[in-house]
Design a protein that fits this description.
Number of helices: 0
Shape: elongated
Structural class: mainly beta
Largest sheet: 7 strands, mixed
Strand content: over 45%
Oligomer: single chain
Number of strands: 11
């Protein structure tokens, strides 16, 4: 069993900041990439940012320069620092991890999501 538990969402005014965290736990052998996706009402889920084990990162154009993804491999945790938030950042943010367990090969796992609401 693997769990990804997100925290840190909430309501913030435009221009404000939030920090999301996601901790992976369970029968984990290794974690490859970890990342954040978001889904706004009526829209498809989209990649926000991801980070490989070695630290290389990838960002959606819409968040470059405002969001920073990082991870603590010892804690199996990924973070998303979100600055200069805009109303269009409002969405449910989902944590994702590509990882290997003691019982299976590499698979994608998802958290349940945390809501971020940015008011104008």
């Amino acid at each position: 069993q693997v769990q990804l538990v997100e925290s840190g969402g909430g309501l913030v005014q435009a221009g404000g900041s939030l920090r999301l965290s996601c901790a992976a736990s369970g029968s984990i052998v290794s974690i490859n990439a970890m990342g954040w996706y978001r889904q706004a009402p009526g829209k498809q889920r989209e990649l926000v940012a991801d980070i490989a084990t070695g630290g290389s990162t990838n960002y959606a154009d819409s968040v470059k320069g405002r969001f920073t993804i990082s991870r603590d491999n010892a804690k199996n945790t990924v973070y998303l620092q979100m600055n200069s938030l805009k109303p269009e950042d409002t969405a449910v943010y989902y944590c994702n991890a590509l990882l290997r367990t003691y019982y299976s090969g590499s698979s994608n796992y998802w958290g349940k999501g945390t809501l971020v609401t940015v008011s104008s």
